[in-house]
Amino acid sequence: MAKVKYLSKSQLLKINQYAVEMVGGKSYGVQSAEALDVVIEQPQQIIFGHELYPTIWLKAAFILQKITKKHVFIDGNKRTSIQAALYFLNLNGYQLVDNKVVNESDGLILAVTNSPDNEETMKYVAEWLESIHQ
To answer: How would DSSP label each residue in 21-50?
Structure first.
């Protein structure tokens, strides 16, 4: 895998602001600084010389799942999660097959919201993300 470009705190804050404002909201910003740090740092983790999340898809799925489940932001967590994952993939050279997927991702995000915060859910999200990119 080429050198991965990870999301910064400022990028995630801008994505959250956009996600909230695009639906007329005004309550954006961090609710849990600790959860935000996890979203930023954990996809980059290397343990005993091996990446904790060895594929770009698992890294993106982690970002989506943790923002959704950990309520990182004051508002717009679900909208932010999908946009952050897609932006992360785009930043790393992956393009959506069809841009309409963003508007049709509610079912996936709701499934993540109602699923356990575990590796099985993350793998499901990773497979979905891979299926919608080229």
So the answer is: HTTT----SBS-HHHHHHHHHGGG-EETTE
- How far apart (Å, rounded) are the C-alpha atoms in residues 123 and 52? 13
Residue pLDDT tens, the chain, 134 long? 579 999 999 999 999 999 999 999 999 999 999 999 999 999 999 999 999 999 999 999 999 999 999 999 999 999 999 999 999 999 999 998 888 777 778 889 999 999 999 999 999 999 999 999 97
Q: What is the CATH number of the domain that holds 26?
A: 1.20.120.1870
pTM score: 0.93
Quote the domain boundaries for residue 123.
Answer: 9-131
CA 39 to chain centre: 8
Q: What three-state secondary structure class fits 133?
A: strand
Q: How many domains would you assign to the chain?
A: 1
In a domain, 2, yes or no: no
